[in-house]
C-alpha cells in the first residue's frame, strides 16, 4: 500500500496538472480577427461539422471522408458571403459507425456551433442522428448514407451526394442474373443499410425468376458456421453479401474453407481492398464482384485532379466515397453563396436550389434531398468492380 | 435436410463450443474462488490472441518456412502469449481486485468493467483499431470428408487441444496441492486461511490459469477465423459468461457442458429444420415426464420425517404429482393443508405446465417441419435456451457445486 504522503503528493501533482491545462486552453481560444476600419476586407470563420467514423469497422471509409473534407476545406475557404470573406473550420467527430453513438456526436457538434454537418458515414447512424439535427435546424449532407428511407421520411434538412440503395440493389441483382445465376443467397448484416440493400437485391433476383435464400449475419460476428452450412446445403450459383468488408471477408473465407464453390458478390460496403486480408488472403476472394453507390469515377470530370490532390495530402489513394464528401462541402458553400448567408436555415433553403459543378459533375438535389442524376437514369449508372490481385478493378 | 448438413452443423457447434469453454473456464474458476464476475476476461482472451498473432507476424512466417520451423515458431508464439497474458491476469487481480476485496461486491464488479474498458482501449492504442490478420501460412488448411461433410483439420485440432487442456485442468484441481488449496479457498476463504492455506497466492494462481486458457482460446480463434479485432473479446466474453451461467457458475464441468450446449444451440437453432428440432423437445418432454412421475415425488417422500411417514400420506404426495393438475389444484384450494403437500402441489402444477408447453412446441414444430428459423434469430435462440434452462434449473445445468465450487 502507498503511504499517506505519496497520496498527498499525487493529489498535489494532479491539481497542478489540472490548473495548467485550464490555463493552456484559456490561451488557445482567442482567434477572432478584429475588422479594420472601413474598406478593408472583413474575414471570419464558419464552422462545418464532420460527423464520420474514424474508428471501428469502417475506419478506412471514415479516413477517406475526413481527409477529402480537409482538402475541400482548404479549396473552398475564402468564399464571400454578405461582404465577409469566410474561412472554413472543420469540427471532426467520430461515431464509430454506431447508431448508439451518433446522437451523442450530433449533440456535441450542435453545441460546438456548426452551421452545417457533412455526414454521417453510415445509414444506421444517419437515422439515429437525423432527428437531433432536424430539431436544431442544422442541414446534414451525407456523402455515403445510401439507405432509401433516409430521404423519404420528410426531413427537409437531409441531403446526400450518393446514389440510393434501391438503384444499387437492382443493379446488383440484375448483374447476378446476367451471369446466369439461378439460385442466389442474399445475406445482410442486420443494419439499416445492408437490410435495405438486400431487400432490393432479393426483389430484383426474384423478379428475374431466380431462387433466393435469405440469410442474416450481424456486424461484429466472426463465426458464420450456421449460415455457411445453410448456404452449402442450398448450393447457390452466387452469394451476395450486402454488409461491410470485414464480415464479408470472414464469410467468404469460411465459405471457401467449407468447399462452397460459388460467385461472391456484394454492394459498396465490401469495396475496400482490406477485404482480402479479412478473408485470410486475397486468393480466397479473387474474382469477387461488387457494385458501388457512387457514380463511376471514370466518367467524372474532376476525379483525376482530386485523386492526385488526395494522394499528395495523405500519401494514400482516395478511398470509397472520398469524392462524394468533397462535393458535399462544395454544395454547402455554394448554398451559402446563393443565399448570401451562413445561417443554417438559409443553407437548407439554398441546398434545394443549388447547382454545383464538382468533382463528380453537375450536382443538384431533388425535392426530397436525393442527388439528381444529370439526364435521369437508373441501375445502368451503377459502376461495377472486380477484385483482382488484391485490389478492386473497374470493369464497367 | 441431409445427414451431411446435420453433421457439419454439429462439428461447427462443437468447435465453437470448445472455444467458449476455454474462456468460460476462466469466468467460472474466478467466480468459484472470489464470487466475482471478471468482466475483463474477454479482453484477456483478445490480448492473448493479439500477442500470439503479432509474434508470428514479427517473426515473419510465410509459405516458404519449413514445417519443423513453423511448429517451433508456433510454439514460441503460443508460449510468449501464455506467459504475458498470465502475467496480465495476475496484475489485474493484484491492482484492480485485491485492494477492493473487503468492499462490497458491486465495487469489485465496477472495477472489473473499468478494467475491461481500459484494456479494450489499450489494444486500440497499441495495435490500432484495424483487425490484426493471422499469417495464412501457419494455419493448417487440410480437411477430411466425413459423411460428405467437410471437416477441417483445424476444427479437429481445436476440439482435441481443448479436451487435453480441460483434462489437465481437472488434474490440477483434483490432483495437486494447489488444486486442493483452490477448492478449500472456494469453500470458505477464512477457514482455509486459518488452516494455513495462502489464499492470496491461490487466488493469483486461479487468475494465472484462467488467463492462460483464455490466451490459448484467443490464439485458436485467430487461427480459425484468420483475424481478431480489438472488440472481438466483448462478444466472446459475453457468450462464454452465458455458457458458464448456463452450466452452473463456479462449476468447472458445468462450464464445459454449458459451452457445448450454447455452441450447438447457435448452430442447430438456425441450421436445422423445425421437424428435427422437434425431437429435442420430445427428448425434453420424456425427461420432464420422468421428473414429474418418478423423480420429484420420490424426493418429496424422502423428505417426510420418520414420525409422519404413513402409506396414506405417501400416496397423497404421489397423487399430487400423478393427477396434477386436478388433485394439485384441489390441494392448493383446500382450506387446511400441510406445508409439504402445499409445496408439492405448486411444484406439480409448474411441472405439468412445462410438460404441456414442451409437448405443444414439439407438435407445433412437427407441423411446420420443413421450415427453418431465419439466421437473424441466432442470438435470440441461444438466449431463449439460456432462459428456459435457468427457469427450471436456476443454478444451471450441472448446478453450482456447493461442496467444491472450483
Describe the structure in brief:
Chain A is an alpha/beta fold and 396 residues long. Chain A has 12 helices and 16 strands. Chain A folds into 2 domains: 189 residues, Response regulator (Rossmann fold), CATH 3.40.50.2300; 141 residues, Rossmann fold (3-Layer(aba) Sandwich).
List keywords for this structure.
heterodimer, A: about 400 residues, alpha/beta, Rossmann fold, 2 domains, seven-stranded mixed sheet, six-stranded mixed sheet, 12 helices, globular, B: about 400 residues, mainly alpha, ABC transporter involved in vitamin B12 uptake, BtuC, two-stranded antiparallel ribbon, 15 helices
Describe this structure in words.
Chain A is an alpha/beta fold and 396 residues long. Chain A contains twelve helices and 16 strands. Chain A folds into two domains: 42-163 and 299-365, Response regulator (Rossmann fold); 166-292 and 381-394, Rossmann fold (3-Layer(aba) Sandwich). A seven-stranded mixed β-sheet of chain A has the order 8-7-9-10-11-15-16, sandwiched between helices. In chain A, strands 2-3-1-4-5-6 form a six-stranded mixed β-sheet, with helices on both faces. In chain A, helix 5 (165-178) crosses helix 6 (192-207). The longest helix of chain A has 25 residues, at 4-28. Chain A is globular. Chain B has 406 residues and is an all-alpha fold. In chain B, 74% of the residues lie in helices and 3% in strands. Chain B has 15 helices and four strands. Chain B has helices at residues 3-34, 41-59, 67-97, 105-127, 153-175, 177-187, 189-194, 199-225, 232-247, 252-271, 274-302, 311-322, 326-333, 339-367, 378-392; strands at 132-133, 143-146, 149-152, 227-228. The longest helix of chain B is centred in the first third of the chain and has 32 residues, at 3-34. The mean pLDDT of chain B is 88. Chains A and B meet through strand 8, helix 7 and helix 8 of A and helix 1 and helix 10 of B.
Amino acid at each position: 500500500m502507498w503511504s499517506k504522503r505519496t497520496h498527498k503528493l499525487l493529489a498535489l501533482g494532479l491539481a497542478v496538472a489540472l490548473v495548467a491545462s485550464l490555463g493552456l486552453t484559456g490561451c488557445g481560444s482567442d482567434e477572432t480577427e478584429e475588422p479594420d476600419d472601413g474598406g478593408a476586407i472583413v474575414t471570419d470563420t464558419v464552422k462545418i461539422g464532420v460527423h464520420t467514423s474514424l474508428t471501428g469497422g469502417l475506419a478506412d471509409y471514415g479516413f477517406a471522408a475526413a481527409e477529402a473534407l480537409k482538402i475541400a476545406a482548404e479549396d473552398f475557404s475564402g468564399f464571400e458571403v454578405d461582404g465577409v470573406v469566410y474561412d472554413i473550420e472543420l469540427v471532426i467527430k467520430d461515431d464509430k459507425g454506431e447508431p448508439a453513438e451518433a446522437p451523442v456526436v450530433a449533440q456535441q457538434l450542435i453545441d460546438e456551433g456548426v452551421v452545417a454537418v457533412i455526414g454521417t458515414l453510415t445509414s444506421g447512424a444517419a437515422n439515429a442522428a437525423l432527428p437531433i439535427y432536424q430539431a436544431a435546424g442544422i442541414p446534414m449532407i451525407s456523402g455515403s448514407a445510401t439507405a432509401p428511407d433516409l430521404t423519404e421520411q420528410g426531413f427537409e434538412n437531409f441531403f446526400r451526394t450518393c446514389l440510393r440503395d434501391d438503384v444499387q440493389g437492382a443493379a446488383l441483382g440484375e448483374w447476378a442474373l446476367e451471369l446466369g445465376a439461378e439460385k442466389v443467397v442474399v445475406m445482410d448484416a442486420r443494419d439499416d443499410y445492408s437490410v435495405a440493400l438486400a431487400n432490393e437485391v432479393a426483389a430484383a433476383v426474384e423478379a428475374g425468376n431466380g431462387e433466393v435464400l435469405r440469410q442474416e449475419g450481424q456486424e461484429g460476428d466472426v463465426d458464420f458456421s450456421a449460415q455457411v452450412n445453410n448456404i452449402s446445403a442450398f448450393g447457390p450459383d452466387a452469394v451476395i453479401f450486402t454488409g461491410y468488408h470485414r464480415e464479408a471477408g470472414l464469410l467468404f473465407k469460411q465459405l471457401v474453407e467449407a468447399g462452397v464453390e460459388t460467385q461472391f458478390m456484394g454492394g459498396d460496403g465490401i469495396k475496400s481492398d482490406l477485404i482480402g486480408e479479412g478473408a485470410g488472403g486475397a486468393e480466397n476472394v479473387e474474382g469477387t464482384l461488387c457494385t458501388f453507390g457512387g457514380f463511376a469515377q471514370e466518367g467524372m470530370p474532376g476525379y483525376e485532379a482530386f485523386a492526385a490532390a488526395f494522394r499528395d495530402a495523405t500519401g494514400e489513394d482516395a478511398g470509397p466515397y472520398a469524392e462524394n464528401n468533397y462535393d458535399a462541402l462544395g454544395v454547402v458553400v455554394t448554398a451559402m453563396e446563393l443565399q448570401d448567408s451562413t445561417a443554417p436555415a438559409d443553407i437548407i433553403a439554398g441546398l434545394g436550389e443549388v447547382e454545383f459543378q464538382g468533382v463528380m459533375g453537375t450536382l443538384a438535389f431533388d425535392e426530397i434531398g436525393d442527388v439528381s442524376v444529370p439526364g435521369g437514369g437508373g441501375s445502368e449508372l451503377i459502376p461495377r468492380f472486380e477484385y483482382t490481385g488484391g485490389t478492386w478493378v473497374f470493369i464497367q | 435436410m441431409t445427414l451431411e448438413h446435420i453433421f457439419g452443423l454439429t462439428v461447427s457447434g462443437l468447435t465453437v463450443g470448445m472455444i467458449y469453454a476455454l474462456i468460460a473456464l476462466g469466468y467460472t474458476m474466478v467466480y468459484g474462488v472470489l464470487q466475482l464476475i471478471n468482466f475483463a476476461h474477454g479482453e484477456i482472451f483478445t490480448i492473448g490472441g493479439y500477442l500470439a498473432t503479432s509474434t508470428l507476424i514479427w517473426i515473419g512466417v510465410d509459405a516458404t518456412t519449413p514445417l519443423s520451423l513453423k511448429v517451433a515458431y508456433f510454439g514460441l508464439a503460443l508460449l510468449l502469449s501464455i506467459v504475458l497474458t498470465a502475467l496480465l491476469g495476475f496484475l489485474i487481480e493484484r491492482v484492480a481486485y485485491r485492494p477492493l476485496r473487503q468492499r462490497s461486491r458491486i465495487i469489485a464488479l465496477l472495477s472489473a468493467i473499468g478494467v475491461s474498458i481500459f484494456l479494450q482501449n489499450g489494444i486500440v492504442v497499441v495495435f490500432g483499431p484495424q483487425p490484426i490478420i493471422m499469417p495464412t501460412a501457419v494455419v493448417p488448411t487440410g480437411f477430411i470428408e466425413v459423411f460428405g461433410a467437410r471437416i477441417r483439420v483445424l476444427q479437429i485440432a481445436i476440439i482435441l487441444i481443448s479436451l487435453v487442456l480441460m483434462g489437465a485442468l481437472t488434474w490440477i484441481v483434483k490432483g495437486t496441492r494447489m488444486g486442493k488449496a483452490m477448492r478449500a479457498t472456494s469453500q470458505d476463504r477464512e477457514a482455509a486461511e486459518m488452516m494455513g492455506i495462502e489464499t492470496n497466492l491461490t487466488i493469483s494462481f486461479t487468475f494465472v490459469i484462467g488467463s492462460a486458457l483464455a490466451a490459448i482460446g484467443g490464439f485458436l480463434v485467430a487461427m480459425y477465423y484468420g483475424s481478431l479485432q480489438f472488440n472481438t473479446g466483448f462478444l466472446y466474453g459475453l457468450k462464454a459468461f452465458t455458457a458458464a451461467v448456463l452450466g452452473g457458475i463456479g462449476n468447472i464441468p458445468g462450464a464445459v457442458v454449458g459451452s457445448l450446449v450454447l455452441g450447438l444451440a447457435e448452430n442447430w437453432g438456425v441450421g436445422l429444420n423445425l421437424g428435427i428440432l422437434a425431437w429435442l423437445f420430445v427428448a425434453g418432454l420424456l425427461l420432464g415426464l420422468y421428473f414429474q412421475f418418478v423423480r420429484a415425488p420420490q424426493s418429496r417422500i424422502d423428505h417426510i420425517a420418520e414420525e409422519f411417514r404413513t402409506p396414506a400420506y405417501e400416496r397423497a404426495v404421489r397423487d399430487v404429482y400423478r393427477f396434477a393438475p386436478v388433485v394439485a389444484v384441489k390441494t392448493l384450494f383446500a382450506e387446511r393443508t400441510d406445508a409439504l403437500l402445499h409445496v408439492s402441489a405448486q411444484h406439480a402444477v409448474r411441472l405439468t405446465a412445462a410438460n404441456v408447453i414442451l409437448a405443444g412446441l414439439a407438435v407445433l414444430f412437427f407441423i411446420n417441419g420443413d421450415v427453418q428459423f431465419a439466421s437473424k434469430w441466432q442470438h435470440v435462440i441461444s438466449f431463449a435456451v439460456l432462459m428456459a434452462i435457468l427457469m427450471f434449473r436456476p443454478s444451471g445445468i450441472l448446478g453450482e457445486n456447493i461442496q467444491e465450487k472450483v
